Inverse folding.
């Protein structure tokens, strides 16, 4: 086996009855993927690639002092210049920049300590890093990130939804009968249910829904449970009691419900809400 340090090519060879066998491959040092150049056949050595940076470590120091600072938020989308401090011994630099999945090289040349950024997108996280180099090697710095401001034209809202107060969109079911309408009065084997009016949840490109809050009215307080339970194809308004009761009873607990809360019994009666973002969390 031999290594060409200039080209980054790894040569593999073996001898089988005095016949040279093996493969010639190149390696992408960023991904580790290899590309076959020549295959001599016969008994193959399992293909692999080596990082050809061997010997003493690169003496070039790593870059530091990023601006925008790493993790910065609410960065404006225009007028930005990224700055940094080059590591010791730097002769030239590479600047890599972009959003997640599209970080690309935007500069490769003589050493500098700033890069003018293009107009950015609202509400986006960007990543960047610097490679400090001399004529023989380079040192890649840490990956830094920052996030831009949200679009000021967007309206960020919390949506409150309630059971619709027509058509008895609230009720209680035993395993065999609908025992209540317009009232959740579950106890024992009964299962209460509410079907919520989702019309306030609008598909409007100018609106960002920050959270969705489910509201229910508490008229009596005896250690209530609250869960946002997937009903699948079961419609509590029209389905029979046994089907509704089975669906709720088998899917209301933590790990199966979107939100599961066992209350302390000290809640104030009246309207209360549970945020959909508190999924699978017992309080």
């Amino acid at each position: 086996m031999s290594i060409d340090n200039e080209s980054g090519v790894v040569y593999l060879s073996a001898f089988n009855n005095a016949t040279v066998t093996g493969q010639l491959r190149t390696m992408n040092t960023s991904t580790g993927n290899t590309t076959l150049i020549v295959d001599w056949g016969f008994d193959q050595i399992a293909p692999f690639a080596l990082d050809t940076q061997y010997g003493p470590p690169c003496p070039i120091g790593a870059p530091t002092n990023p601006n925008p600072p790493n993790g910065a938020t609410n960065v404006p989308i225009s007028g930005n210049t990224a700055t940094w401090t080059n590591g010791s011994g730097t002769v030239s630099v590479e600047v890599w920049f972009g959003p997640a999945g599209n970080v690309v090289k935007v500069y490769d040349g003589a050493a500098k300590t700033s890069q003018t950024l293009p107009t950015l997108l609202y509400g986006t996280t960007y990543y960047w890093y610097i490679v400090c180099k001399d004529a023989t090697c380079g040192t890649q710095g840490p990956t830094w990130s920052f996030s831009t401001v949200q679009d000021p034209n967007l309206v960020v809202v919390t949506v409150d939804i309630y059971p619709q107060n027509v058509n008895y969109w609230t009720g209680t079911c035993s395993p065999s009968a609908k025992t209540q309408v317009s009232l959740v009065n579950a106890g024992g084997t009964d299962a209460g249910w509410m079907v919520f009016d989702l019309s306030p949840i609008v598909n409007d490109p100018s609106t960002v829904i920050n959270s969705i809050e489910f509201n229910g009215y508490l008229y009596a307080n005896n250690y209530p449970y609250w869960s946002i339970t997937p009903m699948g194809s079961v419609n509590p308004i029209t389905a029979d009691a046994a089907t509704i009761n089975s669906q709720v009873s088998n899917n209301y607990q933590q790990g199966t419900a979107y939100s599961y809360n066992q209350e302390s019994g000290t809640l104030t009666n009246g309207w209360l809400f549970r945020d959909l973002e508190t999924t699978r969390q017992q309080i």
Q: What stands out?
A: The helical segments are 241-251. Residues 64-148 form a domain with the Immunoglobulin-like fold (CATH 2.60.40.10). The chain has a mean pLDDT of 81.
